């Protein structure tokens, strides 16, 4: 992609002006291990440089160096892209801007709006919001995921049905655009850019700072898990049907978030209810789930987050591994009927997965996320009530394991008219990826791309093309 790496290195080193730890290049020892650090080891990546700026001015100058020398740019916050897209996604010649140094945080105690650096990890954000007055916002529960990518692609978590997605909390951002300018974007300033950044920021710029609205922490959080250990996956079908009926109820209490996780030993239902145990009982939710639930307890906010993070780490830890994933988003009318559910679970039981490390997560969404109009932000899955995501891990990852997930996905699509998925579950194998990720908003997103990044400075293998 680029022209002459020595000119690029000279340019970047000039920004550093003698500072150590500013940038690294492929010829340096431990480049992959200490600087690149890919998350998905099944996708080989060789960025032309990894740069760790200290402020927005550094980011702006690095972008100028990249464009002057013919290179593309992607930002990396936590680095948990399933396709390693912050590192080029398997395409050589990309400049990675690692935002690890962007850890700033402050709280306005009048508006209760927080300013958060784009390199902050979700676990640190939780602690900082708590220490700044017992505040909270919606996002996922993997503590080492970076807010920079997470909050701009959607930012879904167990509290999203109650409060909306993470990107719905963004009031304003500082962003460096393709021309190397440091901009502010909000509903009233660069509003078209702000629209696109909330759902597709990797296509439009490098966000360095967020201003977000916050909520008081819930005083009580009820958590439970319900584990089924069956000899056959098919035995879980009726339980899944009952769970799906529950999460698709338009009147389901919005304080409730839940997942159904299929794994080699059976299945697990996890649930989080933001309220007291008495309120949880009164909601009627426990009565609609089969069997006996293991009530974890009535926890405070931090304890609840830690418990959810521990559960999530069993499936989606920060540990780099070779893995493969497929996913799909469902509207209420696209959910699989009982006949299809039984057929899919029976088929799953009969397959050779090629690895003991596989799991399939069904995750409830909707609620407050659906209150925001579809075209209010680039994020397009407002009308969805369920996501499924599947994973196989292998050392190494085999064709058989990948084939199992692809065939499982085909089994799912056979029974539904669902189309598209959450861009946070990036799938390098997707065809028509922009339409799948951004749906009806993809046309407007292309128009915004043409205005703010017509030369495609910000690029990955599935990025949006500027409108013609």
Automatic annotation (TrEMBL):
Key word Protein transport present: no
Keywords, alphabetical: FAD, Flavoprotein, Oxidoreductase
GO molecular function, one term: FAD binding
Listed SUPFAM superfamilies: FAD-binding/transporter-associated domain-like
FAD-binding PCMH-type domain: residues covered: 43-217
UniProt key word Plastid: no
Pfam family, one: BBE
Record InterPro entries: BBE, FAD-bd_PCMH, FAD-bd_PCMH-like_sf, FAD-bd_PCMH_sub2, FAD-linked_Oxidoreductase, Oxid_FAD_bind_N, Oxy_OxRdtase_FAD_BS
Family named by the database record: Belongs to the oxygen-dependent FAD-linked oxidoreductase family.
The protein's name: FAD-binding PCMH-type domain-containing protein
């Amino acid at each position: 992609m680029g022209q002459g790496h020595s000119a690029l290195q000279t340019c970047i080193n000039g920004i550093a002006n003698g500072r150590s730890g500013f940038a690294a290049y492929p010829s340096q020892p431990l480049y992959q291990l200490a600087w690149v650090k890919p998350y998905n080891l099944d996708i080989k990546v060789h960025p032309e440089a990894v740069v760790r700026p200290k402020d927005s001015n550094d980011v702006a100058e690095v972008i100028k160096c990249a464009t002057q020398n013919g290179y593309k740019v992607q930002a990396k916050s936590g680095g948990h892209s399933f396709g390693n897209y912050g590192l080029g996604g398997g395409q050589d010649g990309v400049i990675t801007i690692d935002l690890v140094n962007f850890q700033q945080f402050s709280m306005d105690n009048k508006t209760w709006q927080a300013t958060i650096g784009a390199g902050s990890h979700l676990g640190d954000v939780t602690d900082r919001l708590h220490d700044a007055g017992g505040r909270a916002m919606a996002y996922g529960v993997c503590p080492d995921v970076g807010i920079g990518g997470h909050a701009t692609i959607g930012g879904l978590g167990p509290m999203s049905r109650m409060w909306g997605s993470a990107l719905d909390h963004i009031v304003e951002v500082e962003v460096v655009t393709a021309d190397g300018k440091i901009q502010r974007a909000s509903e009233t300033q660069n509003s078209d850019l702000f629209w696109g950044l909330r759902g597709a920021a990797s296509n439009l710029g490098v966000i360095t700072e967020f201003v977000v609205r916050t909520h008081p922490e819930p005083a009580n959080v009820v958590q439970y898990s319900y584990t089924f250990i069956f000899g056959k996956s098919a035995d879980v079908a009726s339980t899944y049907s009952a769970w799906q009926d529950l999460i698709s109820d338009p009147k389901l209490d919005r304080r409730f978030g839940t997942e159904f996780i299929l794994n080699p030993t059976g299945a697990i239902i996890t649930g989080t209810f933001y309220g007291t145990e008495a309120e949880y009982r009164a909601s009627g939710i426990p009565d609609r789930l089969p069997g006996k639930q293991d009530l974890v307890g009535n926890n405070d906010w931090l304890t609840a987050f830690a418990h959810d993070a521990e559960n999530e780490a069993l499936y989606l830890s920060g540990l780099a591994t070779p893995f493969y994933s497929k996913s799909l988003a469902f509207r209420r009318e696209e959910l699989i009927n009982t006949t299809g559910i039984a057929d899919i679970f029976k088929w799953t039981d009969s397959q050779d997965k090629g690895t003991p490390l596989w799991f399939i997560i069904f995750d409830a969404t909707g609620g407050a996320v659906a209150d925001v109009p579809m075209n209010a932000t680039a994020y397009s899955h407002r009308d969805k009530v369920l996501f499924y995501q599947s994973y196989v891990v292998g050392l190494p990852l085999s064709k058989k394991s990948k084939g199992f997930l692809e065939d499982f996905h085909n089994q799912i699509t056979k029974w539904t008219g669902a189309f598209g998925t959450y861009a946070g579950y990036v799938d390098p194998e997707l065809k028509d990826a922009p339409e799948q990720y951004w749906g009806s908003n993809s046309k407007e997103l292309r128009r915004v791309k043409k205005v703010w990044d017509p030369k495609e400075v910000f690029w990955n293998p599935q990025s949006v093309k500027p409108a013609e």
